[in-house]
Design a protein that fits this description.
By secondary structure, this protein is α/β, with parallel strands linked by helices. It has a single domain, classed as Spore Coat Polysaccharide Biosynthesis Protein SpsA, Chain A. The strands form two sheets. Strands 3-2-1-4-9-6-10-12-13 form a nine-stranded mixed sheet, with helices on both faces. The protein has a four-stranded mixed sheet with strand order 5-11-7-8. The radius of gyration is 18 Å and the shape is globular.
Length: 286
């Protein structure tokens, strides 16, 4: 039914390895079974693919500063995937069983669509025990310690393989590329479905040392100064062509997919102005 694809960071230091193994193992438990593609030749990716029964695709284009490029990733994913639906997922995000329930409900719609949603943010310090009722334990932990992420922070995108046209060479994980995807889906006339209420996506907090040239490398500090050449290039490529989950045309609820009331033109102009302020457009990414 669906192919999940991701680009893991190097599986060191040990905390990064733990976070990514937690995420990938959660994907292997989804039902119906998903095809999983792990892209890139970073340390430990080949071994992780072998361990979790995923397909390793080492070939991938990177920027001169070491960031994977969105256009090449999506092109290669379409070429390698064997399922009709594709889903990009950040390699630090846990998915629970409700992900596949949501995908099945949205996939039945005849129109083009992009399913995306918000995330929970959670600090984990040890590997997850996936035996037994691990999802119930995770939900309890989220109620006690989890925090809802911003509508600007998007960690997964589900779509049919023929949705996209030309994609700019955005640096993944360096701001605005995900918000451009929302804008582009709307421009193409696709239904953008906000799955936040239906999908439990858990972002495991991590540091930022993987971003070369960045002034931000410490653990989760929302007001820390953050900059990199790839991020600056992304801002130039995106311009004002950015949207977030509040711009979704539809919302996925327990009773099904419902059309969201349109925002006013004044709201849209105000949102774009606020997006230009770096503190509003939260820079935290994979």
């Amino acid at each position: 039914m669906i192919t999940l694809f991701a680009i893991p960071k190097p599986f060191d230091p040990p905390r990064t390895a733990m976070i990514q193994r937690n995420a990938i193992e959660s994907w292997t438990l989804l039902q119906p079974k998903c095809e999983i593609l792990l892209f890139g030749a970073e340390r430990g990716t080949r071994e992780a693919a072998r361990r979790f029964g995923a397909i390793h695709v080492p070939e991938l284009a990177f920027s001169e500063h070491g960031a994977p490029l969105l256009d090449d990733l999506f092109r290669r994913a379409r070429e390698v995937a064997t399922r009709p639906l594709l889903a990009y997922v950040n390699a630090d995000v846990l998915l629970l069983a409700d992900f596949m329930d949501a995908v099945e409900r949205v996939a039945d719609r005849p129109s083009a669509f992009l399913l995306a949603g918000g995330r929970w943010e959670l600090e984990l310090t040890r590997p997850i025990d996936f035996s037994g009722a691990w999802e119930e334990a995770m939900r309890r932990r989220l109620r006690k310690r989890g925090r809802r992420g911003s509508a600007w922070l998007l960690d997964y995108f589900v779509f049919r393989r023929d949705l996209w046209g030309e994609i700019p060479p955005f640096a993944i994980g360096r701001q605005r590329w995900d918000n451009w995807l929302i804008h582009e889906a709307l421009r193409l006339g696709a239904e953008v479905v906000d799955g936040t209420k239906a999908i439990t996506a858990v972002h495991q907090n991590h540091d930022w040392s993987h971003i070369r040239g960045s002034e931000r490398s410490q653990w989760h500090r929302p007001r820390a100064k953050w900059s990199s050449p790839d991020r600056d290039r992304n801002l130039m490529l995106a311009g004002d062509r950015i949207r977030n989950l509040t711009d979704a045309t539809h919302v996925l609820k327990a009773e099904g997919v419902a059309r969201r009331a349109p925002r006013s033109r004044l709201y849209g102009k105000l949102r774009l102005k606020l997006a230009a302020v770096s503190r509003f457009a939260n820079p935290m990414r994979q």
